[in-house]
Amino acid sequence: MKNDLPSPLIIGHRGASARAPENTMAAFRLALEERADGIEFDVRLSRDGVPFVIHDDNLRRTGLDPHQVADLKASELKKIDVGKWFDPICFANEPLPTLREVLDFFESKVGLLYLEMKSSGAEREKLASACYALLNESTLKDRVIAECFDLPSIQLLKQIDSTIKTAALFDLRICRPASRDGYRLVKDALAVSANEIALHHRLADPKTIALAKQEGLGVAVWTVDETSWIQRAISDGIDALITNDPERLVRERDRRNQVVS
Predict the structure, then answer these.
(1) Which of 94, 189, 199, 234 could lock onto 194 through a cystine, CB 3.0 to 4.6 A?
(2) Are 156 and 128 in contact, with CB atoms under 8 Å apart?
(3) Segment 129-135 mean pLDDT
(4) Inter-axis angle of helices 206-214 and 182-191, to 10 degrees?
(5) What's the whole-model pTM score?
(6) pLDDT digits (tens, 9 = 90+) for 175-223
(7) Is residue 67 annotated as part of the catalytic site, yes or no?
């Protein structure tokens, strides 16, 4: 994490997803308007290998469409409206963005990009390679933190380019009880040469955070919307808070900074 950035960093989870349809350009623009320090978003491959920004492996929830993302070509995915489910008046006809479009948009903007690769063993190499190809073509490589629950994907990306910043993602639901210990989480992150550890908020206890910091790992916590997390971040040394409501947390961070000054 850079020392000249505000602390903690406020990162819009799938953009400003409390007030705009998640993982859309509308949500990303709004997050920047709300003075978020960056955005977090998810990437999957289309049938023809184009990286698209979407969380779910299917389009039922955000596209009101029965298809799987991987079953549709890029040209077909571009016809899906992923805004009307959220608000059919304000966000109708909002298209699925590609990773290239997001990178192009941020070329002229400031902010970090937490890029979550939605991959597993079957598509691990293909997705990592496709994401890296686009990152390598852009000027944003040093502003992107690639993250994944599938830790071998992180390791693979590091093998492709050791300068890529990465974060090991950990979720309470997928961690086995024996692996929820802070030592194990930090060890697993270091084993794949991650630069950061991104913890579900219920895994973000002070001990685990301290262990990560001792090993030189940045610490991000997700997904938190309560303003009390600002003080927790300051007290525990959390570097970034990933939130659906960046405006709310930025406002609280500003208020605390004014009190201190």
Answers:
(1) 189
(2) yes
(3) 98
(4) 30
(5) 0.96
(6) 555 456 899 999 999 999 999 999 999 999 999 999 999 999 999 999 9
(7) no
